[in-house]
Amino acid sequence: MLLLTNDGPLANRLQHPRYGVAKTYEVKVKGYPDENVLRKLRTGVALEEGVTAPAEVMVLRSLPQAAWLKMVLHQGWNRQIKRMGEAVGHPVLKLKRVAYGGLQLGRILPGTYRALDPGEVRRLYATVRLGEE
User: What is the distance between the terminal CA atoms of the chain, rounded to a whole angstrom?
Assistant: First the structure.
């Protein structure tokens, strides 16, 4: 899921960690993470630039040699989820952002797009507290 806008202040706030905009991912990892690994992901993983902010993590389903996780991040370091997976011994095999700031991806074909409806735009502005000043 990508969100495109020509509104600079909105784009800045959506990306800036200060506003803690939730980004939700479905993540397929190699192996099956045990409770200790899930706890590390939930409390913060040490990476090159520091310890990550806590992530919301839940197991969606397990496969014979992999697991699908739902991860919600409120920060966005470069390749953060992939590096977190490597750091805890469960490399990321697939990654898909399914929600951003309250917007849900829903059913849309790869390579296609749709315009946001006015209500979705208002919710984005409210999420980052734009227009309240």
Answer: 29
